[in-house]
Each structure stands twice: as C-alpha cells, then as structure tokens.
Amino acid sequence: FEPEGAFNPKEARMAVFEEASRSRTSSVEERNGVIQTVSTKLRISPEAMERTLFSDLEDEVILREFMPLDAERLLKQYNLSVTQTLLFKSLRVEFTASGNWKNIFRDVKRFGLIYSVERGNDGFRVSLDGPLSLFKMTERYGTSIAKILPQIVASDSWSIRAEILARSRGRVYTFEADGRELKSIILSATDAPAGGARPDQYDSTVEERFARSFLSYGSGWTLKREPEPLVAGTHVLIPDFSFEKNGAKVYLEVVGFWTSDYLERKISKLKQVAGIDMIVAANQSLACSKLERLKSSALVIYYEKEVPLKPIIEHLKERDRLIVKEEVKNFKTEEISLTGDIVSLDEIAKKRGVTLESVRAALKDFKTYGYARVGDFFLSRTKLEEIDEKLKGVQTLTGALLVIEACGVKGEGQKVLDALGYTSVWEGMEMDQVRISKSTPTSRSASISN
Predict the structure, then answer these.
(1) I need a surface site. Which of 66, 111, 201, 387 has the fewest CB within 10 A?
(2) Do 160 and 180 share a structural domain?
(3) Phi-psi region of 212 (alpha: psi -120 to 50; beta: other; left: phi over 0)
C-alpha cells in the first residue's frame, strides 16, 4: 500500500493548516483560497494538493501489488498483524535484539519514530514513545511503530515489552513477547520484503531537497543516508546524513518539528557525541538557547524551508584543508621510491591512504633521479623520449593527444606536450584545426633529475 501523490502528506497538511490559521478560514471559498495559496508555494496544482492532503490515511492508500500466500505464510502474517495491531494503542514500546541493528535503526529513522537508545553490557535497548503518549497523536504514527516489528523479529533473538492502553476499560496492560517462543510462527523481514517506505523515500522533503542540491554540487564528498549509529554516552545517535571522503566523515542532523521532550533528549545526545564532526541544521522555529549551546561542539545552522548548502560546503572545504595540512605534515618523502616508466600521484595516494590533494602538495618540489613531474604523473626519461619520438610527424593536437594516451599517460596530454616543448596554434574553432609545433629541442618544464 502506498499513498498517492509525490508530495509528503504530513507536510502538505501542516502547510495548509498553518495558512488556514492565519486567515481563520470559515467558508468553502476561503478554504479553496488557502489550497490555491499553499499549492503555489509548494509548486503543485490545487488538484494534486487535494489528492495529497489525506492520501496517507488507511482508507486512501492505494494497493499497488498483491501476492498470494500459502498456509504457513498466512499464519505467520496473521500473528505478525495481531501483534502489530496491539502496538497501534501503545503508550510505550521497549525491545532488545541480538543483531540486525542497522536495519532496525534504519526503519526507526525512516518511519520518523520518536525513540531513545541505551547501550548496556548486553547490547542496545530501544524505547519508543507510543502514539498515545504524544501530544499530537496520529494513526499513521501508530502504524509506523508496527512497521518496524518485522525487522525486530528478524534478529536471532529478541524481546518486546509494550504498555497497551485499553480505553474502553480504562486500564493499561503489559504485553511481552520473546523470540525464543515466537520466532518460528511470526513473519519477519527476512521472510518477505518489509512493508512501508520505499528505499528511496526520505523522511521529509527538506531532507530530499538538500540531498539533491548537494549531489548536484559535486563537492568530492560522498553523501550517505542513514549512516552507522554514533555512541552518545549510553545512548545511540543516528544522524540523517554523513559526508565521507578518504576515511574522513562529517555528520549532518536535520532537526525538524518534534515534541519539546524529544528535542531535549536530542540536544542532550548531541552534546555527548565526542570527537565527531557534526553539523546540526535546525528549523528556525526551534531556535533557542539550548541549541545555541551546541555551537561549542557542532556547527549549528538554521533554515526556514530548505537546508542551506553554502555553510555546509564551506565547512567541508575547511575540513579538506585541515586534512591536507595534517597529511602533508606526516608525509615522508624520503620513503618515496619510483619504479616503472609511469607513476601516478593517485597511485601513491592510494598506497599511503591519503588524499590526492595531499600528495600533490607534499611532492610539489620532490625530485628523483631519471624522472620528471608532469601534471599528476612522474614520467621516466625513457618514457618522455618514447613519446617525443612517436610525436614526430604528428601535426594536429587531436592526433598528439591520442598518441600520448596510447603511451599510457591519460588525462595529462596537454601538459606532456608543454613539457616536451610543443606549442598549439589554433587555425579554427574545432579541435582538429589545432596544430602543434615544437618550439625548442628540450623544454624547461620537463625538468628531469640527473
């Protein structure tokens, strides 16, 4: 089952309700005006907005696929569904598991659940605030809690304890389940694809827009969703994103609309994360002195509609500079020994486990017998002479670049020509109209150590 529409129904409702509260809508005409205003802001049609508003309700979601079940599978599915139904009315849910934490934590984050995690000697214990404990209760939230159950029961061993409110009787019951008794008769995530959000579905459009903007920028850092959990005292913090490059990691936590108690817990955990490069992007409406105090241990930025890209890119560039500075400091050029006719700086960087930028800086003035530095390569005297010989009779730049690449030097053809003393003469706008000529027998730029 999936909701119809490309926009997040929860965010659509929030935007409509906020607009309606400002104008105190009381008629159909005024309601239509609110829908039109919000639709324009969100860049969707009023018709799409109407379809989206409540498309996540049980009566509105669309059945996309159905697979027939055998008797055993049906029994397991039934037991899972009965257990999930209990969790719809939970005040609090606690569970433990032996393994599968990555998938469990992923779903906890994916479904937007309010959680806390403690790490003891026997592993993690996760506590979830139930839908009936929240100031703002939704049936969808209760459904989301139930949706993580398949991942929990997929662990080798697990246990669940939940406080269930029976409103008709005015009593709170305790529900307990243990994998040692139920594992063989309840459906798990390993038995079938887990229901719920699509793998490419973000927790919010704010996160999705940021991810798209960052990926289109091309910073050189890899953006990873749902990275590994971070230890924060006896708790675990699961950031929304990590930026990774050559072993270095920077984390991003997007702080949106939460209950005040949950915000308190989130800030507390962020303070306890030691030795981690953390960026906190908080909704402007949450700006407070408590968040400001995080600035001593994290970069805190505020946003209204979209997470700003500029301060994050600047932070990553500064991290790049610090990484290069430290790696250059520890780089021992005396350990460099060149073998072969072509040695790339990228190859040296990979062997040393450092960035290419660091190798470029560390070897800027490096010289060794029989080699010349040409772009991101060290080329032997023999290789340069071989290329120079093969370039005789070649008149066009295009032809020369093909010759150089065929000799094993890729991406630095123009610098090789410069090193060998060739100049380019443009006789037109096309590459095949660029001719080369050798101005001197040897070139100063191809300085080979003797």
Answers:
(1) 66
(2) yes
(3) alpha
CA–CA separation, 72 and 58 (whole Å): 26
- Establish if 195 belongs to a structural domain: no
pLDDT (0 to 100) of residue 335: 74
48 plus 125 within the same structural domain: no
Instruction: Please state, in angstroms and rounded to a whole number, the distance separating the CA atoms of residues 200 and 189.
Output: 18
8 A C-beta contact, residue 68 and residue 62: no
Domain hosting residue 20, numbered range: 9-53
Same domain, 243 and 311: yes
Residue 127 makes CB contacts below 8 A (sequence gap 6+) with: 92, 93, 94, 115, 116, 117, 118
Whether residue 265 is found in the same domain as residue 312:
yes
Q: What is the pLDDT of residue 122?
A: 67
The token duo for 60 is 């509105």
- Higher pLDDT, residue 222 or 259: 222
Mean pLDDT of the chain: 83
CA distance 143 to 177: 19
Find the CATH number of the domain harbouring 222. Answer: 3.40.1350
The total of other beta-carbon atoms located within 10 Å of residue 426's CB is 11
Rounded-to-integer distance, Cα 167 and Cα 89, Å:
9
Residue 95 shares a structural domain with residue 177: yes
Q: Is residue 3 a part of any domain in this protein?
A: no
- Cα separation of 436 and 399, whole Å? 10
CA torsion sign for 377, 382, 386, 389 is positive
Structure confidence by residue, pLDDT tens digits, 242-265: 999 888 899 998 887 666 666 777
Whether residue 317 is found in the same domain as residue 337: no
The residues near 116 (Cβ < 8 Å, ≥ 6 apart) are 126, 127, 235, 265
Helix axes of 381-390 and 397-406: crossing angle, nearest 10 degrees: 140
Boundary residue ending a domain (268, 299, 321): 321
Number of domains in the chain: 4
Residue 34 inside a domain? The answer is yes
Stated pTM of the model: 0.55
Q: Which of 129, 155, 185 is the last residue of a domain?
A: 185
